[in-house]
Specification:
The chain is of the alpha/beta class. It has 14 helices and 12 strands. The radius of gyration is 22 Å and the shape is elongated.
Length: 405
């Protein structure tokens, strides 16, 4: 839903004034940020040459608060927890958080800052590394029993299976091919996760990954893992790809879900929404006093390219896309292991998005804080399952597998 030719905010400068600021920066040979400061402006006062021609008018997407009706307290344990996207969704859907395993110390800090009552296994108190199966089992055995009447949920690191991660490399580079299960460590983490599942035999397990996991080697690798879990007594649903944009998330984001159960109940996935929400539904409001709102200080040369872009167009040099307020965002990107994600361009301001704006596209609440350097904050947000999608998955599992009304 959109309106055309809407008024731009009073805080936005005119194109004439904007060009005056750009000319000043060029003439005085100063950084754009200094030129903006000279005129009493910031990046957020700038506009595209074609700005405010569209505005989202379809209302706000669902938030985690919309799912907090059920309090069944079914226990759940998460693995490869990251910054907690799945956990937040399951928490909102009424699950009791028992434990989380995460090997990245910075991500653990984010979890502990936001949920100090959660039991987080990871640095500096333990490794949190699922590849150390014996350690994981030893840490969980005092907490949960064998034949655990709850849910295991986890998304093994997806880079070996991801097309997006490989697009950072030249096709001639050895990294370009999706190495999948041949990856020395990450490719084996799914197997390690399956071993932990077989040991504790939770009533239900969830595996999340990119669709590339299903397609790798014609599906043979994933099929082998599924057959192994079926031999252990699980009914495993056909691997299913869900697009978050169909589940009240203002972002195109496809993820693969493999769900298994030993309860002899049929697994039901959440029902898609009738409408998709545009990026403008969460980016039209100001960032306010929320955390993680810092925006990148762009060079004048970059902004001069950005201002010429229309909705949905890409800046080829910077490889960034201007979002359209009327359509879901392109996938929020995590970036590589040594750097943060590359955010998209704001629909109406010629700059890249802040971590908070990316978090809104991912449906994290504004009071959820990401710690660490900005680049690593982007990584945390981009790696996550959108909490609102996770909440709908959690509710579906609670109803179909555990019989919650």
């Amino acid at each position: 839903m959109l309106d055309n030719d809407v008024k731009k905010p009073a805080t936005s400068v005119s194109l004439r004034k904007q060009n005056e600021i750009f000319s000043f920066a060029e003439r005085e040979r100063v950084e754009l940020s200094d030129a903006l400061s000279h005129f009493g402006k910031t990046l957020d006062n700038l506009v595209y040459e074609h700005s405010y021609k569209q505005v989202w008018s379809g209302g706000l997407p669902r938030s985690l608060e919309d799912f907090r009706g059920s309090q069944h307290h079914i226990p759940m344990v998460s693995f490869f927890t990251g910054c907690g996207g799945i956990d937040l969704g399951f928490e909102a859907a009424g699950f009791k958080h028992v434990a989380a395993f995460e090997f990245n110390e910075l991500f653990c800090k984010t979890l502990r800052k936001n949920r100090p009552n959660w039991k987080v296994f990871g640095p500096p108190t333990s490794s949190g590394d699922v590849s150390n199966v014996s350690e994981i089992i030893a840490e969980l055995e005092p907490i949960i029993p064998i034949n655990f009447e709850g849910v295991f949920a986890g998304g093994p690191p997806c880079q070996p299976f991801s097309i997006a991660s490989n697009q950072r490399f030249s096709k001639a580079d050895n990294n370009f091919k999706r190495v999948g299960f041949d990856h020395e460590k990450n490719g084996n983490l799914l197997l390690d996760y399956a071993t932990v599942i077989k040991h504790f035999r939770p009533a239900c397990f969830l595996i999340e990954n990119v669709p590339g996991l299903r397609d790798l080697d014609g599906g043979e690798q994933l099929s082998a893992v599924i057959r192994d879990l079926e031999k252990a007594g699980y009914e495993v649903e056909t691997p299913t790809v869900l697009n978050a944009a169909n589940y009240s998330v203002p972002q195109f984001r496809e993820r693969l879900f493999v769900i298994g159960t030993r309860t002899n109940r049929s697994i039901v996935f959440p029902t898609p929404n009738e409408m998709q929400y545009g990026a403008g539904s969460v980016l039209r409001q100001k960032q306010g006093r929320a955390s993680n709102t810092e925006t990148r200080s762009h060079k004048l040369s970059s902004v001069l390219r950005y201002v010429r872009l229309n909705y949905g167009q890409r800046d080829q040099l910077g490889r960034v896309d201007r979002l359209a307020p009327s359509r879901p965002s392109k996938t929020v990107i995590a970036g590589g292991t040594n750097g943060g994600g590359r955010s998209h361009l704001h629909p109406e301001i010629p700059r890249t998005l802040s971590v908070r704006e990316c978090a809104r596209l991912q449906t994290f609440p504004d009071d959820y804080t990401f710690v660490g350097p900005t680049a690593r904050q982007f990584t945390q947000v981009g790696n996550a399952v959108p909490p609102v999608l996770a909440a709908q998955l959690g509710l579906s599992l609670a109803r179909s597998i555990f019989g919650v009304k």
